[in-house]
What we know:
By secondary structure, this protein is an alpha/beta fold. It folds into two domains: about 40-120, CATH 3.30.1330.30; about 125-285, SPOUT methyltransferase, trefoil knot domain (Alpha/beta knot), CATH 3.40.1280.10. It has helices at about 55-60, 80-90, 100-105, 125-135, 150-165, 180-185, 200-210, 250-255, 270-285, and strands at about 20, 25, 40, 50, 65-75, 95-100, 115-120, 125, 140-145, 170, 195-200, 215-220, 225, 235-240, 255-260. It has an eight-stranded parallel sheet with strand order 8-11-10-9-14-12-15-13, with helices on both faces. The chain is elongated. It starts with 19 loop residues before the first strand and ends with a helix.
Amino acid sequence: MIKKKDYSPAENRPNRSNYATNNRFHQKKSEGGENQSFHVKHPKESKLQLVCGIRPVMEAIDAGKQIDRILMQSNLEGALAQELKSKARTANLPVQFVPAEKLNRMTESNHQGVVAVVSPIVFYDFMELLQRLVDEEKTPFVLMLDHITDVRNLGAIVRTAECAGVDAVVVPDHGSAQVNEDAIKTSSGALLRMPMCRESNLKTAVNVAKQYGLQVCAATEKGATDYLEVDFTQPTLLVMGAEDSGISPELLRMADVPAKLPIHGEVQSLNVSVAAAVFMYEMLRQRR
């Protein structure tokens, strides 16, 4: 059982009335009705749901729509553009500055230099999710993906995580693979069932996990501990690193247990989705 040292007052905890049943967890309250002023497009070639135009995107943010990212024309200026940037920062939404040609390729609508991509899934607040696990007397096992950029790796990892009974997956809001149709297809739909958290600062998320009593295990070839020696019966946050560079040095320094997989061949690394699967199923083996 996980125990948090200093519980917040009951009135500060997540309000259960704001949740509706969804698999093992409870989905956040509904996003609100569709605003008729939204210019929503569904391009056949990308199957993305888009909101086009400065004001419609701001209305989408205000209405609580789950936005995956906002693409803004690089040289866009003016008071409305500044207001949109401010709203995006407040809502912790990633903004990408792109040439107008990219926006023109995405949609034939009058985008006014701004296109928002609506997320096909609902993202959870990490602290609220951990608090709910505490309330339900669970022993959390949470997976953190540190800037994994390949959508197929993302989908494969989440598919395995769902099969292994992982409680949640945490990703950064910048520099990570997008949760799109390809990722969902690769996950065999697991991305639609697995609680996903998108955090602006992974170091802050690690600190939150530690406050809730989770040990932080970093999967790294630099680890001094064999993965079979890690006690996964404890509440655990497992961190997997990017395909090319691994876990960032800042997160690696925060790890309680840097753990490695044995490598006996000449190829000195495993695909990240394979490595993650080995760790997750070792957790499942120990907990069974």
